[in-house]
Specification:
340 residues; mainly alpha; Serine Threonine Protein Phosphatase 5, Tetratricopeptide repeat; 2 domains
């Protein structure tokens, strides 16, 4: 099982309702509405309650990789939100956008690329309409939709379109972060990280490094204030930057970044093995390859051995990790071939 550290990860498109919830909190007070009962109609309240239950159920199914059931729940929730928005657009259209983005993520997971793009384009149109009514409250939704469109374009190898969409999202998020850094600085870092990943694939390495470095600086600052929330993203960015440095021949800088990422992942994996052991093993394997490249065979062997032990343990619990075991075994065997 590959991790999100390497390459363009399918979960770049994943939508987390919690990350969108603060946008909703902006909308409802602006229109004099409560979150749980925007209208006095008991029927509307019942519909909202049912739609919320369906959205929660869709999220549960998605986390369990039951995409078809998640799609069905999200589609039902969307119909409730559309119906509510026909009679009372202001408080409910943001929920339409939220659900459309969630559905687009599911379509992407199921490789329904055209459907995913149509759904995101609809989300973009709705969020732009909202921006005409209240630009301050809705620009975040527009930026989020551009970001998700860019992820889809990236995953489907439409690099120029992805770059344009990321740049749109980044411009909006930078502007929003000036007014509300707490809410939007993490989003700026997210878009910078993905854009840097795109530039790396496009062999625009100077621009990739610049964006990775800026994303890293932001995430370091965020981690100072909230280590539990942001240390993993610091390690993730360090790993990407290390790989970029290795590919451009900056081997000492690559090693420093790998080592720092490794230290963070060791601490995280000690507290939460299930979530962070895969990333720890990935960094160990990458560091071992760097050691092999610099003819430090003993250090390479030690790193491969530790990576293999972790991956064996993961594969016992989840067969999906067997490919990672094979990767480490292959890389380690290659090391012995070079040593002859």
């Amino acid at each position: 099982m590959s991790t999100a550290i390497r390459g363009i990860a399918p979960n770049h498109l994943r939508f987390d309702a919690a990350k969108f919830s603060w946008l909703l909190l902006l909308f409802f007070p602006l229109y004099g509405c409560s979150r749980t009962a925007p209208t006095s109609s008991p029927n509307a309240t019942a519909k909202l309650d049912r739609a919320s239950e369906l959205s929660t159920l869709a999220n549960v199914y998605s986390k369990a990789h039951r995409e078809k059931e998640a799609e069905t729940a999200d589609r039902e929730a969307l119909e409730f939100y559309r119906d509510l928005a026909r009679n009372d657009p202001a408080p409910y259209r943001p929920l339409v956008v939220q659900t459309l983005i969630s559905l687009a993520r599911l379509y992407s997971d199921e490789r329904q690329v055209e459907q995913a793009e149509r759904t995101l384009q609809e989300a973009l149109a709705v969020s732009r309409d909202l921006a005409k009514v209240n630009p301050v409250a809705s620009q975040g939704a527009v930026a989020a939709t551009f970001h998700n469109l860019a992820n889809l374009y990236f995953e489907t190898n439409r690099k120029q379109a992805a770059e344009r969409a990321y740049q749109e999202a980044l411009t909006m998020r930078r502007r929003l972060a000036k007014e509300n850094p707490v809410a939007y600085q993490p989003e700026v870092a997210e878009t910078l990280y993905n854009l840097a990943d795109l530039y790396s694939v496009m062999q625009q390495r100077k621009q990739a490094e610049q964006d990775f470095q800026e994303a890293l600086a932001i995430r370091r600052e965020l981690a100072k204030a909230d280590p539990a929330a942001y240390r993993a993203s610091v390690a993730q960015t360090l790993t990407k930057l290390a790989t970029l440095h290795e590919n451009t021949g900056l081997l000492q800088a690559a090693e420093q970044n790998f080592q720092e990422a490794l230290g963070i992942y060791r601490e995280l994996a000690e507290a939460n093995p299930a979530d962070y052991q895969p990333s720890l093993a990935t960094v160990l394997n990458d560091l071992a390859k760097l050691y092999a490249k610099t003819r430090r065979l003993k250090e390479a062997e030690q790193a491969y051995r530790e990576a293999l032990l972790i991956r064996w343990g993961l594969a016992k619990a989840n067969p999906a990790y067997r490919d990672d075991v094979q990767t480490t075994l292959h890389d380690w065997a290659t090391l012995y071939g070079k040593a002859k």
